[in-house]
Specification:
About 60% of the residues lie in helices and about 0% in strands. It has a domain at about 25-54. It has 2 helices and no strands. It is rod-shaped, with a radius of gyration of 21 Å. With about 55 residues, it is mostly helical. This is CAZy families GT83 protein.
Length: about 55
């Protein structure tokens, strides 16, 4: 029981400081979503475009 608690505290000290450095959403994710939306709308799944530019 003590070993488990000690392991959890050690893991918290190791992993919690790094959580703030990783964004929850990648900054390119809206671009990928828009490109996917245009692929579905146009029916062209080979030529990937973003805002009608290749």
């Amino acid at each position: 029981m003590f070993a488990t608690a000690l392991l959890m505290v050690a893991a918290a000290f190791l992993f919690l400081p790094g959580i703030a450095s990783v964004p929850p959403i990648d900054r390119d994710e809206p671009r990928y979503a828009q490109a996917t939306r245009q692929m579905v709308d146009s029916g062209d799944y080979v030529d990937i475009r973003f805002q009608d530019r290749a």
